[in-house]
Amino acid sequence: MTITWRRLGETDFTLLRGWLRQPHVARWWNHETAPEAIARDFGPAARGEEPSEDFLVSVDGNPVGLVQRCWVADYPQYLGDLTSQAEVPERAITLDYLIGDVRLTGQGLGTRLMQAFVPATWVDHPDATSIIVPVHSANRASWRMLEKAGFRRYATASLEPDNPVDDRVHFVYRVDRPAH
CA-CA to 94 of 20 to 30 Å: which in 74, 79, 107, 153? Predict the structure, then answer.
């Protein structure tokens, strides 16, 4: 199995829209799926107009998911919400992710993806010190995947949920750059 990724482009929006409409994704992302909403929310990153990086993930050349990566500090509201409840290193990056096809979930793909993506993040961003990932406490599959990929839970925080049906309880996970 070869996992690769590339920057998400506007030509990928139809595929992304389909993934966001899948019940297993919609449960945790709760994103508008009208073409205009996808273009509004993902277009700036795809065009390099926003500091976040959105990546289309493929396995053996077949698109399977999305990873978003950004510096926590590039989003002051998010940084403030987190730092009021948990230690956030100055040069921390955060990730979000999804596997688009439910048939590919529960097989360790997310773990393998994180095990590849985290070392690539250290290379891509040599001044990054940590990766911080808040996960809703009810999203057991997501936080278990992070644990299997080497992240450790270090805080519980009250954060605005992606889905309004959820409470505010999030587990905050962290992995630090390895010392060499």
Answer: 107
For 75-128, the DSSP string reads SHHHHHHHHTTS---TTEEEEEEEES-GGGTTSSHHHHHHHHHHHHHHHH-TT-
Backbone torsions φ then ψ of 173, nearest 5 degrees? -110, 155
Helix/strand/coil percentages in the chain, nearest 5 = 40, 30, 35
Name 56's Cβ contacts closer than 8 Å, sequence gap at least 6.
5, 6, 7, 8, 9, 12, 15, 16, 63, 65, 66
The tens-digit pLDDT sequence of the chain (180 residues) is: 899 999 999 999 999 999 999 999 999 999 999 999 999 999 999 999 999 999 999 999 999 999 999 999 999 998 899 999 999 999 999 999 999 999 999 999 999 999 999 999 999 999 999 999 999 999 999 999 999 999 999 999 999 999 999 999 999 999 999 987
Q: Is the pTM of this model over 0.90?
A: yes
